[in-house]
Amino acid sequence: MSYQDHIIEMGQLIKSKNGTWDGIAPEAVARMRLQNRFKTGLEIARYTADIMRKDMAAYDADPSDYTQSLGCWHGFIAQQQMIAIKKHFGSTKGRYIYLSGWMVAALRSGFGPLPDQSMHEKTTVPALIEEIYTFLKQADARELGLLFRDLDTARKAGDAAKEAELIEAIDNYETHVVPIVADIDAGFGNAEATYLLAKKMIEAGACAIQIENQVSDEKQCGHQDGKVTVPHEDFIQKLRAVRYAFLELGVDNGIIVARTDSLGAGLTKQIAFSQEPGDLGDQYNAFLDCEEISPGQLKAGEVVISRGGKLLRPKRLPSNLFQFKPGSGEDRVVLDCITSLQNGADILWIETEKPDVEQIAGMVDRIRAVIPNAKLAYNNSPSFNWTLKFREKVYDLWAKEGKDVSAYDRDRLMSADYDATPLGVEADSRIRSFQADAAKRAGIFHHLITLPTYHTAALSTDNLSKEYFGDQGMLGYVLKVQREEIRQGIACVRHQNMSGSDIGDDHKEYFAGEAALKASGAQNTMNQFA
Fold first, then answer.
1. Does residue 522 surpass a pLDDT of 90?
2. Annotated active-site positions, please?
3. Which of 407, 425, 453 lies at the terminal end of a domain, its last residue?
4. Given this model, what pLDDT does residue 271 score?
5. Per the structure, how many domains does the chain have?
6. 20 to 30 A from 79, CA-CA: which of 136, 258, 411, 493?
7. Residue 306's pLDDT is what?
């Protein structure tokens, strides 16, 4: 419905009340309606699921149309990210938000900072989704409010052309509300627990839920040691649980991102149930590290499996966990991914130990031999030392090709001395093109960084503290923060406006007319930043 249609509809409704609603302005209601487009989280989930589905189809047609996101741990961070994207690129198309379980654990738990081991309160995850969308909706209200004020100014000036231009901008307004890919860890319990939490996340607005194949009560960060996976049937139950949650709530287009940690996971908590040779349980068990024994070698309490007429004893650790065969990680990843896609997953996530296009592509080629349109979300993780890994890669490649690398010490490639050298420049070039290269070669539809705003907050706070508490004093803030905000056009330099003060003033005027006591008068110091 257009801006004018909203005004007409409200005008007719108010008129029908025989004068009792004459204090209500139709255009003010129209503005408030447009500033509050999304009434519920489910509306957001359905809207953003459709966006992701369209983006997935576009990627299938052209792999250069990949998507991106940054991990956010607060609604304000997500809001500023989307405001920046609209400011610099004019559109949020292809840009999402990632909600990281790691950052929820580290920054949002009532227990204080926690490792990424599913020990935090699981309700903090849907609470953060709701918070993020509250801030994104407020960004819409603020930006539309500025357009409405400009419209009023154009009308007062009698500038019909400007008025028409602004009405068109209002009618074609692009929201800050974008898809969230939300981390549900390993489901925080059994399939029923997964279903219940997934419902809360979807009701808060999540259209895409990422779930991993680790044991819920043994869950580890994907880039740490000690990861323990579950048999496929256990994971499939959780995939179904998430799908049931989407369908129950009417988000039929909801997206499931199935993550496998098998590449770096050498352990399983249980032997899979198998009914016949070659079934899924048997395939899982085939990766167990076993030794052949005779019946006479059996000891009390031992577990054995039978395969091909032989008795095999899986290697069992004192932790009561079973060990996989060394070097079986990639094969297990491929089986995980195919199985997940065959059981309702939409996107894959392969957690790796380094950013290597060919390593990922090697696994994806095998998956796509079975499911041609398989596509991935990939963690461009801060747990990788990107500078070091890409400089090592270039160094080793050049050495293999016979190029002279005598000017470089491989043990000190992180040195700033190498930043402007041919090796450093080449490594940076490969980092820059990594996402585009991986999208085309390795089937990566969505590139994300899990923890970027955790690191930017730490870095910027460290730099400000060093300057402000040091010799620079107030200049440390003015020079490195406020002056740059002004010159770069950062919206937050007018922090009263960003927090909603002007929206509140508009409402006061709607409610009280000329009697409104507004904050944005001549004495408001924010006018220094107009």
1. no
2. 221
3. 453
4. 92
5. 2
6. 258
7. 86
